[in-house]
Amino acid sequence: MTDSKAPLQGPVLGIESSCDETGVAVYESGRGLLAHALYSQIALHAEYGGVVPELASRDHVRKLLPLLRQTLAEGGLKISDLSAVAYTAGPGLIGALLVGASVARSLAWALEIPAIGVHHMEGHLLAPLLEESAPGTEPLAPPFVALLVSGGHSLLVGVDRIGSYTILGDTLDDAAGEAFDKTAKLMGLPYPGGPALAKIAEDGDPKAYRFSRPMTDRPGLDFSFSGLKTQVLMAWRDSNRTDFTKANIARGFEEAIVETLAIKCRRALAQTGYRRLVVSGGVGANKRLRTQLAHAGQREGFHTYFPRLAFCTDNGAMIALAGSIRLAAGQTTGPEIKVLPRWDLQTLPEVP
Ligand code: KG4
Ligand code: ZN
Prior knowledge:
Blueprint: E1 2-3, E2 12-16, E3 21-28, E4 32-40, H1 42-46, H2 53-74, E5 84-90, H3 94-111, E6 115-119, H4 120-126, E7 144-149, E8 154-161, E9 164-169, H5 176-186, H6 193-201, H7 226-237, H8 243-272, E10 276-280, H9 287-300, E11 303-305, H10 317-328, E12 331-332
This protein binds 5'-O-[(R)-(carboxyoxy)(hydroxy)phosphoryl]adenosine and zinc ion.
């Protein structure tokens, strides 16, 4: 990332293609989100029970330009109105990332405007800024703690300032979304399992099954979810496997994950002394998690911030927003097409 002095402003295009969603959006500082479109590849990968990287890349190739045209039309924008192009540069699937990066970089080159390679998790972390703060509530600003829970990550991040991130806790094995997906799969639920499991858990009895709250009995902010999956496997194998039991096991599993995440969030707030909590990433769409944390905040005096449900999972809007913030700071990316399938959030430059 290079630093140039004069902050540039105007509509910023955002392109997300790190995994199995193609997202395109336009965000402008001072005006907000002007348009966004999303294409999910869920149906494509469902028959394989998980994301097939090569199929994901090819589908991004097919969908990206039509989505771009659709987004510009929705926002009443011409391509020449764009002032920069932001794209997810990592972490994610290398082929999928390369599709977004190549399109973004080529567009920026042709339009002679800057390109900004955005860290996917910074996108998730800033996504609540896409929402208007409710009247009477404190607007979101650092310092805060962010719980980023998706299919690939379970992170607790200390956000000192935008761009200045400290990983307070990480998962030692499965990410929270991965645990939802694998557990759902072993009970025969369709891919992606997280939303499917959460749906049937609504009818379950929270007291029927009690699974452990991993790593909450010792100090620290790391997570481990793979043992929970094994507990569910054993409970499921030994059960009568009726829909009624399935709902009860799903509910017990969801309660265990949600309570574990909530305990660690409170711990992270106590450790940092911060009073604001952001919850984002695909699992941030889980209603029980949102309700439990919002209630804990009201009881214990911290503020909770969530993106709307559609912006918890991968989307172009969060990339356009993060790109717009980086653009205003003069932090743009060089002319090379470079992606980082692994990328430490803590290495990002601070936004002055
Ligand atoms: O952020 P995201 O769209 O993609 C990644 O960057 O991984 O997150 C997808 C993950 C999947 O594991 C999915 O099952 C999970 O988020 N997820 C949920 C819910 N909605 C999505 N997990 C639990 N409850 C939900 N309502
Ligand atoms: Zn994500």
